[in-house]
Amino acid sequence: MDAWNAIDFSSSLVHSDSFSSGSFRRSRMLFFGSSSGTSIEKLPDKVILHIFSYLSHLEICRMAMICRRWRTIAYNTQLWKNVSLRPEVSGLHVGSLESLLSLISVRFGPSLRYIELPIELITHTVLHELSSKCPNLTHMLLDFSTAMQLHDFSEMQAFPAKLRYMCICLSEVIFMEGFMRKIYNFINGLEVLHLIGTYEKCEEEEEEIYEVINVHKLKSATPNLRVINLYGINFIDDSHIDAFSSNCIQLECLAVNFCNKVTGSTLKALLARSKQLKCLLMNGTSLKSEYVMQAEWDKCSVQELDISGTDLSTECLIDVLTRIPTLRFLSAGQINGFNDSVLKAWMEGGNPKTLIALDLDSSDNISDEGLARFITRYGAQLQACVLSGMTHITDQLWMTIMPILTNIRIIVMGTTERLSGNIHVDQLMDTIGSHCTKLERLELRWDPENLRFSDKSQKAIDLLRVKCLKLRCLVLNDGRYYETVKANFERADRTTVVRTTTSCRVSAYHVLSNYNDLIFN
Questions:
Q1: Secondary structure of residue 192 in the 3-state scheme
Q2: Residue in 46, 51, 53, 58 with CA at minimum distance from that of residue 6
Q3: Which residues pair with 358 in a beta bridge?
Q4: pTM higher than 0.70 for the full model?
Q5: What is the DSSP letter of 473?
């Protein structure tokens, strides 16, 4: 049975998984109880509405099948403030444009704040209806990533004008100027802009690169941007960074992760113009040491820096880290030039006293002695520590530094490479539970075959679960130990905490000042 059909949103509106009569009966038993004394029917509508607010829209559709009262509550526009219509990313599937237009008018209305639209639903009539019927719409995602051809926007005269956040997923081959030209006059209030490229879809053989969106025109239409995220776009280079910095004087955060044409040639101008720039993320770019060293880091406001996966030299790293006045976040993993001498120079000539997050993933040229010295001195202030991807960093180092990490919220440890020795995970879990009570996210990347645990491991897992009450994510490689930990947490009704590395990865990005603004997709 079609879930949306069941609540009369409109005929053939959204296709969902089948909802069998057996599931229907079990839902009635679950929510209504077996006797009138325990019936949920006695709860007022506003309480049920609050309960529904924790459900996904697909689950709300299913609850609407229970009874007429619940169907009426499911109609409430308060439940439809944030809507995704992209089924490939757990959104709802709308069957036709007519159905969506009906939804916008009848169900979404003034309550709608956020919407995600796939390419087939991005038309001038839909956008006109959103601008007319949804005056409080402030967040929008437009997914053109699978497009082979755009709709005709020549007649488009209206677009949501109160947007503060916009995410555009670009196509490799579709030029966006025809669409963008129509919306430039409506987006000057934007504060957060995401342009998402096709980095993750790229194949190894080189293909012709098209500049599918005109960044130089876009920057003129968006002078109020605070956060700019250009992710994995193969045509983005330093000239585009220069364009944004010349017009966006309120810029606080710039992310160009995996834009491999960025070399840093305009970094000096960026730091000189953007006096409020606090977060600069350049993971996987082609930064050149000479350009990076030319920037006036000693006069900048940058506090959060990601240079992971670049080819910066040891000299450059020392130069940057000893000149930045207040650095609170550093991600510098996968850099051959990052070694003990960099850490030593930073401790002696820099200012790591403000550091709260350190990510040195796969930094094979740093010794465990060098890391131990640094963590011993500054570990008490750290909220995130990522020392993964290094075979020489084992449980012995972690057991040594764990009592120091009293304020830690995020920990990532281990490597997927098979080790010659074993990891005694029971002792590790016991130490974490005893000293890291503020822990929220933990990932162990060691191969399951390297994890050694005893029949009494439940005690160590219990200690971790009981002491670390804020723990919301524990990621392990699939294997016997994963199953043991998962079963332990499920018995305590914490079913969503334990996850596998195939579906989840822990990142230090959670402590970034603009983390919520940087979330996309």
A1: strand
A2: 58
A3: 330, 385
A4: yes
A5: E
